[in-house]
Amino acid sequence: MLYKAISDLKDLLSWSDRIGSDETNEINNIIKNLETVRNHCIIWSIEDFKAAAIEKRGDSWRDYYDESKFEEALERMIRKHDANIGICWETVKIYLDEYCMKEKEGDSYNFGITYVGNDEENYTLLHNNISVATIHTGEDGVLALISDINKMISNFIYENTVIEIKNDDGLLGIIVDIWEKGAEEDEPIATQCFWFEDYIN
Q1: Angstrom distance (rounded) from CA 183 to CA 165
Q2: Rounded to the nearest 5°, which phi and psi values hold at 96?
Q3: For a tag on the chain, would you pick the N or C end, based on fewer CB atoms within 10 A?
């Protein structure tokens, strides 16, 4: 946004023959001040979302992420971040996975995992639109949890697998089980517990 503001003001100067010298000087002063701010602050951009996508998925990143969603995810990340913690590369990757994934074969890469905010510190986790648990944390904590679940699940996604996400009574976390569809085994091929205390922020 800062770069665009500077660019727009410089474009305005191209019409200097139609505006007065006082206005031209004022615009030049504004540009100078904005460039000073730009040179002394940390700025996250759409290019950072692209870099994170390449790091996670390599040359095939466009098969997984919708680049047109990067700007919206960036603006949301900046608007919603915790100023006490700040923004880091892990934050970018969380918003990348949560808001920029492409749809795949009628489903999405978040594997049906979403959340609903009851208030700013109380979120309900949903799997295929069914409530599986409530977690008391900030939105960044919920996004981090969903990102970690997706990472675990993505290692086992085949056409013949079934994902189960459950929250046993009294369990302060959720269990993700992955089963082979139609298999007779009594044990899942993968299981992992995600403890809510690890995601409180």
Answers
A1: 18
A2: -60, -50
A3: N
